[in-house]
Amino acid sequence: MPDFAPVEYVIAATPFAAAAGGVAWQRYAPHSFWYGVGYPLKAAQVYGTWHHVASGCGLTRRRRALRWSAEAFPGMAPVFRHRRRLGRVQIDKAPRLGVIRPTARGLRVPMRLHDGQTPDDVRAALDRLAHAWRVHAVRLHSWKPGRVTLLVTGADPLVDVDLADLSAGLLTVVPAVLETGEPFVMDFRAVPHWLITGATNSGKSTLINALIMGLTTQLASGEALTGEPAEYEGQGVALVGFDLKGGVEFTPYEARMSALATERADCLALLDQLIDIVRARMALCRRHRARNIWHPRISADVRPTPIVVLIDEIAELFLMADKSQKEEVTRAATALLRLAQISRAFGVYLVVCGQRVGSDLGSGVTALRSQLSGRICHRVNDEATAEMTLGDMDRAALAAARQIPANMPGVAVVIGSDGLWHRARSAYRTEEQAEDAAAFYAPLAPEWKTLLAEIDTAGELPELDAFESEFSDATTPI
Ligand SMILES: Nc1ncnc2c1ncn2[C@@H]1O[C@H](COP(=O)(O)OP(=O)(O)OP(=O)(O)O)[C@@H](O)[C@H]1O
Ligand SMILES: [Mg+2]
C-alpha cells in the first residue's frame, strides 16, 4: 500500500470537500450561493460570449474601425511572409453592455443601442438571447433613448408561487407574481377596470379568490385595520358581485359583499342602481368642484365608499336564448358600457371575467373591452378570446398567451399600469380560504342601502350625456 503523508490526503481531499460544500451551499442557501458564485460566473459568461451571441442573434452592426491586419507582402512572399499594418477594416460590432447586476432570480443587463436600433429590434431577439444564455427567459425591462435594460430570469419563478400578503394599501391588491419575481400589482386607482379571460380550469376563479381576499380586509378610509372587524362595521371597501352562473361562484362570499345579482333581471336592476350611484357622486364632485372623488377638495368624511364590481362569466350577460331576451340583453350591455365609461372617476371599478369574450357576443363587447385597460389572459381555447384580451395591446403578448401550458393553471399574460406585458401566476387561494376570509371580514361590508342613500341625498341627478363633456378628462387614470 502506498505510503501518503497526512498533508497529501488533505490536498487530495480538498477538491472533493469544496465540491460537496458548494452543492450543500447551493441546496441550503440558494440565495447567497447565487450572489456569491452563480452571478459572477453567469455575468462572466455573458460578457465573454457577448460578441458571438450578439452576432448570432442579429444584434451586431457592420462598422469601419482601426485594426491591425496581417497581409502578405506583395512579390516577396517567400522572404517576408507577413507584415502587420494598421488600417480601417469592416468589422461586426456588438452593442455595448453596461454593468451587469444581479437580481434575486437572475440578471439585469443594460445595453447601449447602435445608431438606428430601437427597443423593438432587441425585443425581436429576446427568445434567441434566452437560448444562447441558457436561461428561462429574457425580457425587455425598460428603455430610455439609446439604451435598454434586459431582465434575465434563470429558472421559471412561476412553478412555485407564494404570497403572504395580498393587500397592498387602499384598492391595491397583489394577487399574483410576475415572471421577473416581482409582485403583480392591481391598483384600481391607476388601472380602474380589468378584463380577465381564460378557458375552463385556467385559474380565473382562483385569481378572483386572491383578489377578494386582498380587498375584503381593506377599509374605505385607506387606514390599516388594527382591531377586530366588528369595530369597523360597514367601513370596508364595497364589493358587488354579478354571477350569472346561478350564483355558484360568488354566493360563498356573499357575507362580505354589499350586493349580489345572480339572475339577469337582478343584474339589470343592480346596474341601474350603480349608474345612479355614479350620477350621485357626479353631483357631489360638481358641488365640490372636483374632477374625481379622490380630489383634495372632497374631504375624507364626505368621500364616498369605493365599490369594486366583480362580474363572472360576462358571456352570460350578453347571450340570449331567444329573441324575447334581446331587449334585456341590449339594456344590460348598454348599462355596463355606460358604467365602464363613466365610473372610474367616481370610485366604481370593474373586474370582468369570462371564458369566451369574442366580438360574436355583440358589438357592445368590443366597446366594453376598450374601457377595460387592465388585461389578464389565462390559457384560452379559442383564438378570438386571446385576440380580444390582448390583440389590441401587444402582438407579442398574444403569442405568449398561446404558449401557456395546460398543466400550469393560474399562469396568465398580464398587462397592467406599465402597459407592458408579463407572464404571471396567481397565488393559490382556494374557495374555502376566500370564503373564510369573507365570513371573517363580513362586518366590514357596507350595507347596500347605505350606498343607495347617496342617491337620495344627492338631489337632482345630472344627466349622463352632460357628463361626457364635463368630466371627459376624468377618464384618464387617477
Ligand atoms: N395559481 C394557481 N396555482 C396552482 N393551482 C391553480 C392556480 N390557479 C388555479 N389552479 C388550479 O386549477 C383549478 C381550476 O382553477 P379555477 O377554478 O380558478 O379555474 P376557472 O378558470 O375559474 O375555471 P371555470 O371557468 O371552469 O370556472 C383549481 O382548482 C386549482 O387546482
Ligand atoms: Mg371559475
Automatic annotation (TrEMBL):
Keywords (A to Z) from UniProt: ATP-binding, Nucleotide-binding
Matches recorded under InterPro entries: FtsK/SpoIIIE/SftA, FtsK_dom, P-loop_NTPase
UniProt xrefs under Pfam families: FtsK_SpoIIIE (PF01580)
Domain FtsK as annotated: residue spans: 181-387
Domain of life: Bacteria
Binding site for ATP: G198, A199, T200, N201, S202, G203, K204, S205
PROSITE patterns per UniProt: FTSK (PS50901)
Protein name: 50S ribosome-binding GTPase
